[in-house]
Amino acid sequence: MNAEAQLAELTRGVVDLHVKSELLERLEQSLKTGKPLLVKAGFDPTRPDLHLGHTVLMRKMRQFQDLGHRVVFLIGDTTAMVGDPTGRNKLRPQLERAEVEAAAKTYVAQAQKILDPARMAVRYNSEWLDAMKPMDLVRLMAKSTVSRMLERKDFAKRFAEEQPIYQHEFLYPLFQGYDSVALDDDVELGGTDQLFNLMVGRDLMPQYGKRAQIVMTTPLLEGIDAKLEDGRVVGAKMSKSANNYVGIDEPGEEQFRKLMLVDDQVIWRYFELLSAKSAGEIAELRESVQAGKRHPKDAKKLFADEIVTQYHGAAAATEARKRWDAKFEADAVPEDVETIRVSCEGDALWLPKALAIAALVKSSSQGRQLVEQGGVEVDQKRVSDPKHELPAGRTYLVRVGSKNRRFARLQVEKS
Length: 415
Hints:
Elements: H1 3-11, E1 16-18, H2 20-33, E2 38-43, H3 52-66, E3 70-75, H4 77-82, H5 97-104, H6 107-111, E4 120-124, H7 126-129, H8 134-141, H9 146-149, H10 153-160, H11 167-183, E5 187-191, H12 195-207, E6 214-218, E7 227-229, E8 232-234, H13 252-259, H14 267-274, H15 279-290, H16 296-312, H17 314-328, E9 339-344, E10 348-350, H18 351-357, H19 364-372, E11 376-378, E12 381-382, E13 389-391, E14 394-400, E15 406-414
Parallel strand pairs: 2-3, 2-5, 3-4, 5-6, 9-15
Antiparallel strand pairs: 1-6, 7-8, 10-13, 11-12, 11-14, 14-15
């Protein structure tokens, strides 16, 4: 693939690019010399699990690998202890070394589910940052100004609101920038929220006699609770702290369940950023849903299938879909429905009371209300009569609720 074609492939879906002409020049040089570009992206191990939001960036790294370039999966064990102030309106709690090391242990294995280990180097920025002496740190700080740091929106906002900004927080972008100096990379990748930090690296490199890196940012993936408002996807970015994430190491069944919770309109954002399907295939699928030829739920199942297959294999995806269908499809009955024995004094048991005894509802009155609302089925037939009774001597398949459905087989016996 020539340099122009590589450029087109690598810049697809990119938000920020500094500078396009420089990237083209380095791609051409790489083809002439046979020397691959060195591309890095950093991940601070503040928590042990990577999630689908992280994989947007890693998929771009994989594109570079597939074109013959090398990537550095940089674990920011030292920067994690400093704490990234990006997007923060107050001081981020500082972590202990043991916490960071425990979280970092899982990162490489998870990353290799996407990245090619043969073209991937794993580095830790403690290799060079922990080796810094006081005067090295002073020289590093002397290469930037406080006014430059205050160009950051989060710092500027805190300064304007007279909220404290701690001196060590200024070190974070400088340390991240020095990572680029230490690795002498050609390209640094990051999410759009990391643009300031990435540009600090670009600024620092020439001051240490290095050629300035090219900076590329990828979109941030919104969490599974995001909504579409006025044609825009609105919601916090995917993160464990917001509990709106899908972990790449989570069981396939859990991944499938969470992805089926994504809004029908937001799922196309997930297709765009995470699916291996071509833009044409996604457009065709979307058109079929919009035309009413396919249900939006079918599109979400296709996406969930793809994700579970990627991280756990086709068999796991088939099982996850089967279990989801059994639990949530309108006419499906789970295979493992519990049988509960309930007793009655007479010849029959009042249905709301039976639901309460079986702990399917909190009380008989709640059971009655649910029956009146049409939220109860007996032997797969809706019951709306609040006086309905279950004659003794039989077992009944009972379903309670619609979205969060619960099943039980009630074996009604005389006491």
